[in-house]
Amino acid sequence: MTPPLFPAYIASGSQWAIWCPDCGCLHYHGKVPGHRQPHCSRVLRPGEHLEGYYLIPTGEPLPAEAKKLNSIGRRRIKHLLYAKKPKQTDPQPVPAWGRAIEDRDYALALLAVWSWQEGRARGEEFQKAMAYWARVIPDPATEARS
Predict the structure, then answer these.
(1) Residue 37 CB contacts under 8 Å (≥ 6 apart), including other chains
(2) Where residue 86 falls among pLDDT bands split at 50, 70, 90?
(3) Residue 140 · residue 44 · CB < 8 Å
(4) 18 and 6 in contact (C-beta within 8 Å)?
(5) Which residues pair with 97 in a beta bridge?
(6) Least buried of 30, 58, 128, 145, by fewest C-beta within 10 Å?
(7) Phi and psi at residue 37, to the nearest 5°
(8) Of the candidates 5, 4, 30, which has an alpha carbon nearest to the alpha carbon of residue 17?
(9) What does the chain look like in DSSP terms, one character per residue?
């Protein structure tokens, strides 16, 4: 199964944030696209191995409501960790801006824009970088056939 492609928003000068559908909170990562493991998996699902996810840069700032939703999710996690008899509850719904990117071509286009804007790739180097991302991010259509 392909790990999901999550839109990464600018949280600070050195961090991106994504919305985690498992815990209903923001996860913060360094500003480099690629595969990550969720921080919450050790707490919410001890012993269970999760596939992780890919960060896809949007180039947009974190939506205004994100921090409020994050504090609601963190209160839920804190209750689960410290309650004498914790009651497992579902995380809050994923906001529209935090949903996984389903369109691989759109994800690759966002990566291309990020690479170009960051000056990370020019000319032949850019072509190599995009070929790398095309290999790394599996095509769901190809996966469905196998």
Answers:
(1) 50, 52
(2) low
(3) no
(4) yes
(5) none
(6) 145
(7) -100, 140
(8) 30
(9) -PPPEEEEEE-SSSEEEEEETTTTEEEEEES--EEE--TTHHHHSTTPPP--EEEEEEEEEPPTTHHHHHHHHHHHHHHHHH-SS----PPPPPPGGGSPP--HHHHHHHHHHHHHHTT---THHHHHHHHHHHHHS--HHHHHH-
Residue 52 backbone class (left: φ over 0; alpha: ψ -120 to 50; beta: rest): left
**Count of residues making up the chain:** 146
pTM: 0.82
Looking at this protein, which amino acid is placed at residue 11?
Answer: A
Assign 141 a pLDDT band (cuts: 50, 70, 90).
low
